[in-house]
Automatic annotation (TrEMBL):
This is Transcriptional regulator. It comes from the Bacteria. It holds the Pfam family MLTR_LBD. Residues 32-81 form the HTH cro/C1-type domain.
Length: 284
């Protein structure tokens, strides 16, 4: 009976969801809300899984419940009700911020490739030598210097630039992931304070927060202006570090390109590879 109640709740929420807010394609629709295929794509499961879940034939994991809640952009009350129906407690506590030995070893493995570790609130916790070699995300004298979202929306580093399209995609990704973090960790006051500050001081962030876009993957290109090496175009890739609840952002250049050669020169002049723990609040 409980699984049928859970399935009915998921279906009701899906059918009443605003496709535009959830990040689905707009346009004429024969039915209201999100289609099963759209919810499945946004939540990272199959359409058949959603169908069976709504029929009361699947017991989702706690992670799937959180993913569905995030895909539907549920408020706290609806999220708690889904958790209760599925037999789980809502995610509480604080965002994990400690980089364990495994995460630091991962960063070391990149060697000559610029990379950094960040928590899910976009606080950078560790950076490798190759990142510092770019000299593009230096501190600005603010307590949130090491928070990527704050630097992007409030005090973007002058040494990093993107096309308008890529900048918009980058901002949408930051806001979407930060919104998911706020939903998962409602008791983390530092996350709530960051969101409140950004919503109050940045109209672009507030707009994205009120009508978020769904971003399932992260690939973004930026130009890094090194004072000695000139412009270097790098592609950013985001990797999950599930054991520590962190993210690794890795910057690479196209093999054999001028950018790869310039990156090699800049990183080579920076000295032996190493990993540095930094403040919890990030390079843009």
């Amino acid at each position: 009976m409980v699984l049928h109640d859970l399935g009915a709740a998921v279906r009701r929420l899906r059918e009443n969801a605003d496709p535009g807010v959830a990040g689905a394609a707009r346009g004429r629709r024969r039915t209201r809300g999100l289609r099963r295929e759209e919810l499945a794509d946004l939540a990272g499961v199959s359409a058949d899984y959603v169908r069976r879940l709504e029929q009361g034939r699947r017991h989702p994991s706690a992670g799937v419940v959180t993913a569905i809640a995030g895909a539907l952009r549920l408020g706290r009350a609806d999220y708690e009700r889904l958790c209760a129906l599925a037999g789980y407690a809502p995610v509480e506590g604080r965002v994990p911020r400690e980089a364990g030995p495994a995460a630091l070893r991962l960063l070391e493995r990149f060697g000559g490739t610029p990379a950094f570790l960040a928590d899910t609130a976009w606080n950078v916790v560790a950076v490798n030598t190759a990142w510092f070699a770019l000299q593009a995300g230096g501190p600005a004298g603010h307590e949130r210097d090491w928070n990527v979202a704050w630097r992007t929306f409030r005090n973007a580093p002058r040494g990093i630039s993107r096309t308008d399209e890529r900048a918009a995609g980058f901002r949408a990704m930051l806001a979407a992931r930060l919104r998911d973090t706020a939903l998962r960790y409602p008791a983390d006051t530092s996350v709530a304070e960051l969101v409140d500050e950004l919503r109050t001081t940045s109209r672009p962030f507030d707009t994205l927060w009120r009508a978020p876009e769904t971003v399932t993957t992260y690939e973004n290109r930026a130009v890094f202006r090194h004072p000695d090496g000139g412009d270097i175009r790098l592609d950013g890739t985001l990797l999950e570090v599930p054991g520590d609840g962190l993210m690794a952002v890795v910057l690479t250049a196209a093999p054999g390109s001028r950018d790869a050669a310039l990156l090699g020169e800049v990183v080579g002049a920076a000295g032996p590879p190493s990993v540095v723990r930094v403040g919890q609040t990030g390079p843009g």
